[in-house]
Amino acid sequence: MAEEITHQKITIEDDLLLRNLRAFKKEAKSAKESRRLKDRDNMSVYLGDHDFSHKIKGQSRVVLAKQPIAIEQIAAFVKRSLMKFGDWFTVSLEGNSEFPVDEKSIFKFLTLLLDGDHANFGTGLADGIKQALNKSLMIFKVHGQYITIPHFRAVRDTSLKAITKFVTSGERTKKLLRDDKQSWKLLIELIPTEDYNPDPTGAKLYEIHSVEKDLANVLEMAAAPNSGFNKEAIEMLKSEYHLSEEDRQRIAYDANQNPEDIPKFRRKVQLDEFWGSLFDDDGLPIASNIQFIVANDKHVLLSPRPNPFWHGQSPFVAVPLMRVPGSVWHKALMDHASSIAIDRNELFSMMVDGGKAAVWGIRTVKPDNLEDPTEIQAGIPYGATLKIRQNTIGNDTFNIVKGGDIPNDALNIFHQLTREHEEATLINSIAIGQLPPRQVKATEVVQAQQGQNSFFESIANDVERDGIEQVLKKAWMTALQFVDDYLEPELVNSLGDDVAVTLQKMAPEDRFAAIALGPRFKVRGLSSIIQRIQDYNKLISFATFIFSNDVLARVFMEKYDTGKFVIKLLKGLEIDPAELELRPEEQEVMRQSMLEGMAGSATTAQGSPPYAGEALPGVGMSQLDLPEDQFAPKTIQ
């Protein structure tokens, strides 16, 4: 039986709405409390916020940067894989020849949407990877909003001053007019894990997006076309101020700024956006797949309504990098690495303190022997000159009891922690391209590379299949629903004249029913670059093995084209071989040079004998037993 898609409001008492919302929020927040504590520790390490409250003045407060760098490397790898190497996703219509929009137009349309100023998916994805590494999930919200786009036009100035100027000098003047127009824009918003409250059981009965917005932003949302916001609730918000001290501290910490820097006159509104099902007090369902918004936990800003998106799905896409069976929050890669990083920072700081103590030493002083004992209340600074009383007997006013040192056990433990941290972050010396600190067998290098590749392959599959492909699918269907609200020049630029006219002629419902579910999106940027790296490593290993042996090299060159082999290597490095090819005139010069070289070789063979330092045909230099006077001419028998 077909179900009609409607946007009519659902009548439910506000008290019942608020009871459902509060109960679900309490359940979701309680379930993620342990995850929140781990997130806090991971973010502290990422931001370099180590607890040195036990340190005294003069002691080291050094924070090592290995973990933040590891996170930046992984995020940069993902962004580079997707955004730098050409078309990172494909569109297929599965042989539907009667589809009104071709694959190329859909690809171009989505590419422009994703690269727009408001979506900016490349930067959002890199930030999402960083969030998932520290907080287990990257969460995208695919929706849209109406924005004001300025349009300018120059018209003839008809003011009295302009007319007078024309009469006196014959010069016409113009003035600039601005016409603001409303246009719908796709948004792909990265949601902080603190703001995302899903059903912790995995049943997906609800998702709640809790976010603080400036009152000015809420008023702008309410003024958008078809917002449906309750005007009475808006008026009540104007007289309220909602930003607790706890919220102020959290916002400031996440933004890495001082809480006092947030202006007190900047009025905030707490919005809880609910997506899912509602139940009565007996636990019986009364509505499903609905949306409503509550402000400041008491004002129903948007009354319950069916899911406004025609695709009928939640706008959220939550993707873990490390999956835990049966979990909603899963785990973060840095959960284990952070505890190691904290101990490593602490140990390194103490080692630096030991180095300082070795220079300064531990000193005792008799303050009664000083003319002014207050000079050393804050310690004895380096190079200080202090006055001693004239009647002081002996030279024991200052004594060095013991100098500092760094125990070998501390160094050993530090190196062990470093190795464990590199394993936990999967960024070891081999992986980042440094030379190993000792003799490492080839099998160890291969095993390290295979282990890292397997990990990134797992990340790539999850991010591509469960994350980016779902974002593309929802972005396409959402943009298609609101395509009539795009400005016509934008549609023409992205789809072309013919396709844009075809879509605009169709009724919105006909258009969505005909083409919304047709395209299939396949993301290949991450997996393809990983495969390319693996293939390149295989080719390099093969070339090293083959060309280190003259016999194998000769067999290879007799049977295979070395030029094609080099081309394959260049493609593995993302270098276009065509950019390195010789031009026709350069090829002619090279050919002449080779002919002249061959003629010179023939003359040498007929006249004077070759030198022993020259390679014989079919014989490598390593096979020649050269005497000490190898540069003297020899006759080959």
Write the layout of secondary structure elements.
Layout: H1 14-31, H2 33-46, H3 66-83, E1 89-92, H4 103-114, H5 121-135, E2 137-156, H6 160-169, E3 174-191, E4 196-198, E5 206-214, H7 215-223, H8 231-237, H9 245-254, E6 268-279, E7 285-295, E8 299-306, E9 316-320, H10 334-360, E10 362-365, E11 398-402, H11 408-425, H12 442-481, H13 488-495, H14 497-505, H15 508-515, E12 520-523, H16 525-547, H17 550-559, H18 562-572, H19 584-606
Antiparallel strand pairs: 1-12, 2-3, 2-9, 4-5, 5-6, 6-7, 7-8, 10-11
Task: Explain what this protein looks like in three dimensions.
This protein is α+β, with helices and mostly antiparallel strands and 637 residues long. The protein is 46% helix and 16% strand. It has 19 helices and twelve strands. It has helices at 14-31, 33-46, 66-83, 103-114, 121-135, 160-169, 215-223, 231-237, 245-254, 334-360, 408-425, 442-481, 488-495, 497-505, 508-515, 525-547, 550-559, 562-572, 584-606, and strands at residues 89-92, 137-156, 174-191, 196-198, 206-214, 268-279, 285-295, 299-306, 316-320, 362-365, 398-402, 520-523. The strands form four sheets. The chain has a five-stranded antiparallel sheet. A hairpin with a 5-residue loop joins strand 6 and strand 7. Helix 13 packs across helix 14 (497-505). The protein is extended and about 105 Å long. The model is unreliable at 429-442 and 609-637 (pLDDT under 50).
